[in-house]
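Lab meeting minutes (informal)
Scribe: AK
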Amino acid sequence: MLSILIPTYNYNCTSLLKELYSQITNSNVEVIVCDDASSNLEIISKNEAHCVKYSFRYLKNNINLGREQTRQKLAQNAANNWLLFMDADVYPSSNEFVNIYLNQLNQQIDVIFGGIGYQRSKSKLKQNLRYNFGIKREEKSLKERLNKPYISINSGCFCIKKNVFLKINKEMSQGIYGLDIAFTYLLKINKIRILHIENKVYHEDLEENMTFFNKSLMAIDTICHLERTQKLPIDYSRIQITFQIIKKSKLDGVVYFFLKLLHTLLKNKALSKKPNLFAFDLYRLYYYIKLKSNA
């Protein structure tokens, strides 16, 4: 019926495993964890011990393969036709989380997405950028997700038919950061049937500000790479659409000139004690135009 698949790397996911164990009452639900060659032996030991305790399956990669290939391995080892992928650093918002997914499984849909959220608490100052970005940009109501069913999917937690996942994931580039956008685009062009529901998980392990800032630029590198290799159109994501509007207005040179003058200020505002997300957007736009001009 359902295989819950968790790729992990140097992250203690024992609280997630404990919660899943408490929710699983159906014998046709399995949990498989795959460690992607973690270096932290203490974390490896804890995760493996909890898998043994709960009769979950535990797999190990001998070398670091990355999330996409680790997910592929998990899918290939899954016994069931429906796969629920969960990142190690998410946590169910409901004690009926597993049952809600089980009640939605049918032959008329291919992917189920319940949403992602961030718990309202005092975030650490060094994580403010990630926290605010998550709340303002990644948390989406069911109505918002229904308006943009594909690009609204966050791969931190989603349910998908095994045959669909193996086909889509095989088509993706490997070994680069920020492939969520490619995944959602492949779902769209393959006309995969999406069901959005209310069953969110909380994203718990937030990157520090500078780490997230740099990762966001790596994600833009990936967008440009996907464009060059014709695996993504030039007007799919928000930043791409914004650039196309500017370009059609023949203002790309002017916009780039002013953003270049202001880019240090924009970066400082994005990384300040009260992160300015508009400044963060403008910096990423500057970086994207810069990459496009150097292509």
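Next up, CB showed the second protein from the same session:
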Amino acid sequence: MKQETLLQYIGGRSCAILGLGVSHLPLARQLTELGISLTVHDKKSPEELGDAALSLAEAGVAFVTGDGYLNAIEGEVIFRSPGIRPDLGGIPAAIQAGAELTSEIELFLRLTEAETFAVTGSDGKTTSTTLTGKFLEAEAKRRGFGNVLVGGNIGAPLLDRLEQTDRTSRAVMELSSFQLMTLSDAPHHVAITNISPNHLDWHHGMEEYIKAKTHIVGTRTQRIVTNADNPETVALAKGWIGQTEERPPLILFSSTKHSYKEIYADGSALGDCAVYEKDGFICFDNGSCAIPLLEISHIRVPGRHNVENFMTAIALTFGCVDPSVYTTVADEFTGVEHRLELVLTRNGVDYFNSSIDSSPTRTAAALSALHGRGIVAICGGYDKKIPFAPLADALCRSVRAVVLTGATAEKIKDAILACPAYREGNPQIKECPDFEEAVRCASSLAKIGECVLLSPACASFDAFKNFAERGERFRSIVNTL
């Protein structure tokens, strides 16, 4: 991080960090090295947090820990971890008293000189963000301009890499609704992939969840990309189209509509564009001319949802890269870890790790990508208080057997049994509270030519630190079957 930039921004104010997670450790070290007064608020003690926290304590950082760690917050600049709601404990009182509430990602957006690209949404944001980064990296290599950083909700913290950016750099970030709750410094190029019920254990209903997603758009935004096939994003797009004040161009993408007129049937504004599939190509259309950019046969990752991920990233980067990079990246891109990742084939059965699928719509997309295969699915995990009826319908129509595990196993089973598409024994339902037992059970059910798919449709926090740990555990078990 550029220390002089950070020091100038803080301006001698005291700081508080709420939640000493991965993104806040580098920030805490920097603030400490600059001699800025810092208090860390975390439920865990420094001893429980580990050596890095103990080193901070030895350097003079104050810690407030235990159940009441958020009761009283006195810092003048407060850095909130994404998982901590901004209305908890003493946060509102601190803001009312004049404190500034910010975050690691918002401070990066405020201080960086880089051109910024951001993706949010309920599904597809990790792959879309990764593809956006790869398109820009390929262009940087082709033209020799500055660094391309990828981070936010994936990868390493961006603020810790601020010193690597200048006006020739590009920064790409995945942003969750948690991060967006209080965002005020919006990125330059933004995309909302889709919106469906998610994280309703944290958000106070869908209205708040959707509102958080829209915070990705702000006064600095130069283009808005969103989905013409998703009801929630269509509603947002209609609102943007109907705005009379000046706004950035809108780019709508669709995998079901095949022309500009079809996508903008209800009207568009000057500068609005469309991305769609026609004659086997992903095309960009400004309303008067359609440009074929990528032949879909070059996309190596399966599923209609991955075509949509390419559309998102193409719409986000069009005009910023040479069109040739789309084919270059597509020819090499085989997906992100834990998303329909083929672990191995054993005894004629393919084992797919799609641990990143933490919502019913993600699991439905994974099942669609494997359409025509005999599927034994493993589902269940942490309860985010979202409805499982859509998941049940997808399972009843797509899998031969499902193994349920984790905290939501009983809820998913009830949804399957209540589903109009369910027929007794179709799908076959097994319950295994233990994750390893569930994987072994799925393996025993699979027949030659079929596949075992880990696609939980739930978060991992009931049994794992995150989806990556869950996916790695799946890999480990499969490799020892």
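CB comment: The radius of gyration is 23 Å.
No objections, moving on.
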